[in-house]
Design a protein that fits this description.
Blueprint: H1 15-22, E1 37-41, H2 44-53, E2 57-58, E3 68-70, E4 75-78, H3 83-95, E5 100-109, E6 119-128, E7 142-143, H4 146-158, E8 164-171, H5 179-187, E9 190-194, H6 197-207, E10 210-222, E11 225-228, H7 233-252
Parallel strand pairs: 1-4, 1-5, 5-10, 6-8, 8-9
Antiparallel strand pairs: 2-3, 3-4, 5-9, 6-7, 6-10, 10-11
Length: 255
Amino acid sequence: MQEFFDPDPNSLLKPHNLVRCLTLGGLKRNSLEVQRKVLLVFTEPDLKRAAKLGSGRAQIGWRPYRRLYRCEGFTLALSPIGAPNVVALAEELFAFGGRIFVLFGYCGALFEEMQGGDVLLPVEALREEGTSYHYLPPDERALASEELVRYLKTFFRKGGLEPHIGKVWTTDAIYRETREKIRRYKTMGYAAVEMETSALFSWASARGVRAGSVLVVSDRFIEEQWVPYFGHPRFVMGRRKALGLTVGALKELCP
């Protein structure tokens, strides 16, 4: 595999420079400021619900480039799907003050005991995407903040939700989740597959910040079949409860 990692921490293109070029933020001082705690979501319904739960107000300074809300104790941001997108957004939010990042997303379960609507808190992610290799050498692992995982697990349990704790497989190629790969990674102990976590964890490690991931099971791979749960009551209720607890956890987390 070609070596992409460069230990030089400095990029000629700086996030704060690009953001100021593409937003209204230059018109008003501090309008681009981001709180230390950040929640990243990927869908419009999750953005609207999290903003409501967090009593969020739109940060107009980030328009038209990004959609951000200033909530009670944290900043909420909408990310496009995929590893390059979430890391580019994280870089920009880091440049304006973000230091603790929690991703709220979805995954396809590989383990039979994981049902639609269940929640996985990954402790490690398999780096089968390209973005992480620009932040960490190939032999380094993509790890969550242990402190953040413990906090989220405890908070979720107190809220009546028992999360799964384990490893996740991150891929760039949603339509290359083949039988052989699923069999192999399941045997290696990877509980689910998704598209962002390893990149976010690697980026956070390189930047010296904390990152965690909350993944709701939206589909499953059972006996070589793909089984979706997107409209299933288990998924709808699980997603709703998990997002509410994630917002609550961020509100109460000491930065």
